[in-house]
Design a protein that fits this description.
Elements lengths: L15 E3 L5 E3 L69 H7 L9 E9 L9 E8 L2 E5 L9 E4 L3 E8 L2 E6 L3 E5 L3 H20 L11 H7 E9 L6 E6 L2 E5 L2 H6 L4 E4 L4 E4 L4 E5 L4 E5 L3 H19 L2 H8 L17 E3 L4 E3 L1 H10 L6 E3 L9 H19 L15 H13 L13 H11 L5 H8 L17 H7 L3 H9 L27 E7 L17 E8 L2 E5 L9 E4 L3 E6 L9 E7 L4 E6 L2 H15 L14 E9 L2 E13 L2 E6 L8 E2 L5 E5 L4 E6 L2 E6 L3 H15 L18 H13 L13 H14 L12 H13 L7 H11 L5 H14 L2 H19 L1 H4 L3 H13 L6 H12 L1 H4 L4 H22 L9 E6 L7 E5 L6 H11 L10 E7 L4 E4 L6 H7 L4 E7 L3 H10 L5 E9 L13 E7 L3 E5 L6 E6 L21 E7 L5 E7 L3 H15 L35 H13 L1 H7 L1
Parallel strand pairs: 34-38
Antiparallel strand pairs: 1-2, 3-4, 3-9, 4-5, 5-6, 7-8, 8-9, 10-11, 10-16, 11-12, 12-13, 14-15, 15-16, 17-18, 17-19, 20-21, 20-26, 21-22, 22-23, 24-25, 24-27, 25-26, 27-28, 27-33, 28-29, 29-30, 31-32, 32-33, 34-35, 36-37, 36-38, 39-40, 39-44, 40-41, 41-42, 43-44
Helix pairs in contact: 6-8, 7-9, 8-11, 8-13, 10-11, 12-13, 16-18, 16-21, 17-18, 18-23, 19-20, 19-24, 21-24, 23-24, 26-28, 29-30, 31-32
């Protein structure tokens, strides 16, 4: 095994079969079936001991004969032995009774009547009984593995018990409607007491009126109460389950027959549930105890299930008391706007009860018009006064004012669409189009005086009419003691008047002029912007502007922006416009650079009709005012934050991004310099994209999709309108390129190093570390010039390849870049200070001065200097082969970096000091140095293999397997020095056209067959050093990391960054002096971000405190240790300062503890990063592979020359065909 971060061992004896879903199905040895009826025994198999618990797998023994004539799904005990509530998604049957018991946290069960230990007859009919802790209450007979267990193994409704009888030998039988259960007590007295108690409870239930328990639904009543029922797939189950959504619960049944009998598996309390769509047919029901991953037969069916479960959650969280009291008024039982029955929303300032669909449109009007609240969920807002206000007011009184003049042709009904509702509600409440006008309407003073008089009475209708016809709720009453109408109402004891006034303190009176265009597709009111003045304009165009427009091509026009229309006239005296542009048709606004055309300041307007309008002004300030006014008029309020930016380009586009790539959404984009700002349609402002740091920028499809890849985030911008899309493409491509000769204007890597510098350093590191006279010898001037131009034009497109590019040409390119760099690497401001520091005689003081000067450099300069000096430090490590010592490198790079003529020795002295004191000046730790050394060692091994002829020059070939080691799953991959585990995973999945879904945590694993160990590689680990450390029994495999989701959930919910607890400990070599190498002992461990401590006991000082481990590998149970006490174990490897390796075996009490320790170790070792912040997504399409031999996929060729030619031809037609036949 390579000495790398973390791994675990599966046991050597394991029976696993792969089902059609691609998920492993395990056969645990101790999860025995417990049917009432005896059957033939089955051979035992071993339990799967890894990070994965049983509930991640399907049914055990799927080929066993069904019991009682049932389905092939066996009626075994449905339980796990959970010590912690967190389990993996996709629970198997063994998890379901856990959830049932877990619901007791919110729905207390009846008090326990009797509890104690009983032996229970196992399902195979064996005479070996199993001890169970049995509890009886008024509703259920339940049994557990122990009295400490939270989750029962079986729940038998008392109402289903028909008979309890003795059958001898301390045994008794519980007979239910469809099966029998046999128990055995310790003695006859105990048995008789159980029989007597069970009979009494059963008879008591029979004597009462039939009651419907949670798990025994009568056929008819269950059917009536079901909101939705049907079959769903549940991850971990081989067969579909029958699922019922009923009021505030979701019930799970083995099949429809059990549903009719009322015998279920479990139910889920939806007041702790949350529903989330996962993919086209899948969705998750998440609770604090489980994540149930369901899959429906179709997308439409999935949407129906999600909606039903969301309604169930709403029902569970709701309080119907308020709704029932308000519905007591006849008119409140129907929506005030469309007439839908049982409306459960309300506008608390308008005092109208409305349905859910109208409530959505009410929210679009804004809180100044209507304040929407739920009758069932917003419990705190519903004071006694507000409820009474709705009871006295009612929809009838409200509509006598608001809907007094509604024409039948404009009224809406329950079946009306969203646009109809929006149009009607805008007219009704924002414009007040249908209201009953008060006689004093238009006379503000009289309205205010009448309001002051009305609030002292109980006439709420009069107060409503006055207030929404213009009376001010804060008007001056003229009474010093009661200066406002609210104070008058309080003095008069009018509680309901006070409540009405309080909810309308910020309400806006209806105004007809507030209406915007009915064709506007937004439900939120857009501001009305007014602007006018003369503009220069060219005729509209249907093609991009490809050349500069002269002043003679512009015509002076009078332009107005008013009521959502940009109009242009022949002059300011004309009343008929030459043309108009409706603001809702504008899709993009472009601010051109000064003097881009014959008019000093110009801007472009793009419309949905794919037309381009060019306007201009001689005054930049005036042009900026026009830009801001137009932008405010067409940008949706959700993206108003973009208006504050000094944008070059602003508009709306359709895009795909994030975790869901199925459907495109509309977003607002603003280009500012080399930064692209994005705001989604729901108003969420995303992290800006730094275009110069893009890892990929390409156009896919028929020039219809622009792909931007930055820091594991991929954005797909779709081109619906050709003219507008081409403009965005050219603008983004230009912004993503190098724009000047300073470092900050270059294309950059994620670490702020110019991509040009990174490309050259990477190539020389791989191909030129031992090249004699590197950087001293000059390359060909013509090749250097052309290579530098290509890299400065677009470094992303340049791939330096051995054979095509010479090492000296690349080295010369790097030197010329730094010599011609604008402002220099050390900057003109700080370069003299760097040279002055060389005069300091005290080395420690000199290093300190260098560190201060380094901190003063701009971030890009600082990162570039560190990358370059790190590279030169590597070069001088091979001075025996390349003859380039630190001094020689300083002679070459001193004048280059300081851009001098070479006569000043101080420049070379600075470079020499930086290389010599590289570790101290740049604060490089031991771990980083070792990582660099491993990379160099790997590269040198690759070079040696290349020179010996065992490998094609420049290629390091590795065999990687997909999911398991089989000939048909092997993939031959070229591994460059910079390839990470994440990139290798993407490469393998892309070759097999496997799309990574939201919860698919695909990872690369290092597997050691001899030790039967496997270690998941961290996504940022470099692959090449690991390959050179692999033994002959080791290989790499790409597969799903099943435990990752639960580890991420644990880390996200954990309080603090420290992990501590008891574990069993054993040391392979007794280096700690604790005498523990012969067996396992309980020890207390504390793991933090800087150290791991071991204590003999919880309350004593550490037995062996030591600094944080340098190399740790966590494995699973080592099968060669027969003394291992429990199955949940892992191994830690520690290397001290003397390079002595120690190996500890640690065991946890539960699988959950193992997972938590494993996640904490991973987090600490990788600086808190366990998985990329944004879930990685496979890109839709990859660039076409180069047709040359060095870039085609490698395939195994066997046989004679003719057979090999046939193999290549077959591979070109269908690569998988060849691999299947290997």
């Amino acid at each position: 095994m390579a000495s790398c971060p973390l791994s675990f061992h599966p046991p050597c004896t394991l029976t696993v079969q792969w089902e059609h879903h691609g998920e492993p199905v395990c056969h645990p040895c101790v999860s025995l079936q417990e049917d009432a009826e005896p059957r033939m025994g089955r051979p035992r198999s071993l339990r799967f001991n890894s990070l994965f618990s049983e509930d991640e797998f399907g049914e055990e023994h799927p080929n066993a004969a069904p019991a009682n004539g049932g389905s092939s799904w066996s009626d075994r005990d449905l339980s796990l032995h959970p010590s912690a509530p967190d389990t993996f998604p996709g629970s198997s049957p063994s998890t379901l009774s856990d959830s049932m018991e877990g619901t007791s946290a919110t729905t207390p069960l009846s008090p326990t009547i009797r509890a104690g230990w009983l032996d229970k007859n196992p399902p195979q009919g064996s005479y070996i009984y199993q001890k169970r802790w049995v509890k009886l209450d008024a509703d259920y007979l339940r049994y557990f593995d122990s009295e400490k267990d939270t989750y029962s193994k079986r729940l038998i409704p008392v109402s289903s018990i028909s008979r309890v009888s003795s059958i001898g030998d301390q045994k008794f039988e519980v007979v239910t409607n469809n099966r029998n259960f046999v128990f055995r007590a310790e003695n006859d007295a105990d048995r008789n007491e159980w029989i007597r108690t069970l009979q009494e409870i059963a008879e008591e239930r029979k004597g009462k009126a039939p009651e419907r328990t949670l798990m025994s639904l009568a056929t008819d009543s269950a059917t009536e109460l079901a909101n939705k029922s049907g079959f769903l797939e549940l991850r971990g189950f081989k067969h579909k389950l029958f699922v019922v959504v009923s009021e505030d619960k979701v019930f799970l049944y083995k099949n429809a027959e059990d549903y009719q009998l009322g015998i279920g598996i479990t139910y889920i309390e939806m007041n702790v549930g949350n529903v989330k769509e996962v993919d086209r047919r899948g969705f998750d029901l998440t609770t604090p105890y489980r994540i149930f991953s369901f899959s429906a037969d179709s997308e439409q069916e999935k949407e129906e299930w999600v909606e039903a479960m969301q309604q169930s959650i709403t029902e569970a969280l709701s309080n119907s008391e308020v709704a029932e009291r308000i519905w007591a008024v006849e008119s409140n039982r129907f929506c005030a706007d469309c007439g839908s029955p049982k409306p459960d929303w309300a506008s608390i300032n308008l005092c109208v009860v409305i349905c859910k669909r109208c409530a959505g449109e009410h929210r679009g009007l804004g809180p100044g018009i209507t304040k929407v609240r739920s009758l069932k969920m917003d419990r705190k807002v519903w004071t006694e006064e507000l409820i009474e206000l709705f009871q006295q007011f009612g929809n009838m009184m409200a509509n006598q004012f608001w809907a007094a003049n509604v024409p039948p042709s404009e009224a809406i009904s329950p079946s009306s669409g969203s646009q109809e509702r929006r149009r009607f509600l805008i007219a009704k409440y924002r414009e007040g189009k249908y209201r009953h006008y008060h006689p004093l309407f238009g006379n503000q003073e009289e309205l205010n005086r009448a309001l002051c008089a009305a609030v002292t009475t109980s006439d709420l209708a009069e107060t409503q009419a006055l207030l929404f016809c213009g009376a001010s709720v804060t008007c001056d009453t003229g009474d010093p003691q009661c200066p406002t109408p609210l104070a008058l109402a309080e003095r008069s004891g009018q509680r309901l008047q006070m409540e009405f006034l309080l909810h309308n303190k910020t309400s806006e009176p209806p105004r007809l002029e507030m209406v915007c265009s009915e064709e506007k597709p937004y439900s939120v009111h857009l501001p009305s912007i007014t602007h006018n003045g003369f503009l220069y304009k060219t005729p509209s165009m249907v093609k991009p502007i490809s050349e500069r427009k002269g002043p003679e091509e512009f015509s002076r026009r009078w332009c107005t922006l008013q009521d959502g229309v940009l109009s242009y006239y022949e002059n300011n005296r004309n009343t008929v416009p030459n043309g108009e542009i409706r603001v809702e048709e504008i899709v993009c606004l472009v601010n051109n650079p000064l003097h881009a055309h014959g008019i000093e300041s110009t801007f472009e307007v793009y419309t949905e009709a794919d037309r381009l309008y060019l306007f201009g002004l001689e005054s930049p300030d005036s042009a900026r005012e026009w830009l801001k006014s137009i932008a405010k008029s067409f940008v949706h309020p959700c993206a108003e934050g973009l208006l504050a930016l000094d944008f070059e380009r602003l508009g709306r586009l359709h895009y795909k991004g994030g975790l869901t790539l199925e459907h495109a959404q509309e977003g607002w984009f603003a280009l500012v310099g080399s930064t692209l700002h994005v705001c989604s349609e729901d108003g969420c402002r995303q992290e800006p994209l730094q275009l110069r740091k893009l890892q990929e920028l390409s156009i896919q499809g028929d020039h219809e999709v622009l792909v931007l890849v930055e820091r594991r985030r991929t954005l797909y911008i779709q081109g619906e309108r050709k003219l507008d899309f081409l403009g965005w493409v050219h603008a983004i491509q230009k912004a993503a390129g190098s724009s000047g000769d300073t470092l900050s204007e270059q294309q950059l890597t994620e670490s702020d190093v110019p991509l040009l510098v990174d490309r050259c350093i990477d190539y020389i590191t791989q191909c030129g570390l031992t090249s004699e006279g590197i950087y001293r010898k000059s390359g060909q001037n013509s090749k250097t010039t052309s290579l530098l131009e290509a890299l400065q034009r677009d470094a992303r497109r340049v791939r330096l390849k051995e054979g095509e590019h010479q090492v000296d040409d690349v080295a010369n390119t790097l030197k010329r870049f730094f010599r011609d760099l604008g402002d220099g690497l050390f900057t003109r401001r700080w370069a003299p200070d760097w040279l002055w520091a060389t005069a300091l005689e005290d080395e420690e003081a000199k290093v300190g001065e260098y560190r201060q000067l380094l901190a003063a450099l701009p971030p890009v300069n600082r990162a570039t200097l560190k990358a370059l000096i790190n590279h030169l430090f590597r070069i001088q490590c091979f001075s025996g082969e390349n003859q380039m010592t630190t001094h020689n490198l300083a002679i070459v790079f001193g004048p280059t970096l300081f851009q001098t003529d070479g006569k000043d020795y101080k420049a070379g002295r600075v470079v020499e000091d930086l290389i010599s004191h590289y570790v101290e000046i740049f604060n490089v730790n031991d771990q980083e140095m070792k990582k660099q050394q491993d990379e160099i060692t790997a590269i040198m091994k690759m070079r040696e293999a290349s020179s010996s002829g065992t490998q094609q020059a420049g290629d390091f070939i590795c065999t990687v397997y997909l999911e398991e080691k089989k000939t048909e799953t092997e993939q031959h991959v070229k591994i460059p020095a910079t390839m990470t585990a994440e990139e290798l995973t993407f490469e393998i999945l892309d070759r097999r056209k496997i799309v990574m879904k939201e919860k698919d945590y695909w990872s690369c694993f290092e597997v050691n067959e001899r030790e039967e160990a496997e270690r998941p590689l961290h996504y940022s680990e470099k692959v090449l050093p690991i390959l050179h450390c692999l033994g002959t029994e080791s290989y790499l495999v790409v597969k799903k990391q099943m435990s990752m989701e639960n580890m991420l959930i644990y880390l996200a919910s954990r309080v603090g960054d420290c992990k501590h607890g008891m574990m069993k400990f054993r040391e392979e070599r007794n280096l700690l002096g604790l005498g523990l190498s012969t067996g396992f002992h309980d020890r207390y461990f504390i793991l933090s971000h800087s150290w791991l401590r071991l204590y003999k006991e919880v309350r004593v000082s550490p037995a062996f405190p030591f600094p944080f481990f340098t190399h740790v590998t966590i494995t699973g149970t080592v099968p060669l240790l027969p003394s291992l006490p429990i199955c949940w174990g892992f191994t830690v490897f520690y290397e001290n300062e003397k390079h002595e390796k120690q190996q500890w075996y640690l065991c946890c009490d539960t699988q959950a503890d193992l997972r938590e320790w494993f996640a904490t170790f991973l987090q600490v070792q990788n600086g808190g990063s366990l998985w990329p912040l944004e879930h990685p997504k496979m890109r839709v399409a990859q660039p076409q592979q180069d047709a040359r031999l060095g870039n085609i996929s490698l395939i195994p060729l066997r046989g004679n020359e003719s057979e090999m030619r046939n193999s290549v031809a077959a591979f070109a037609t269908d690569p998988l065909t060849l691999l299947r036949n290997v």
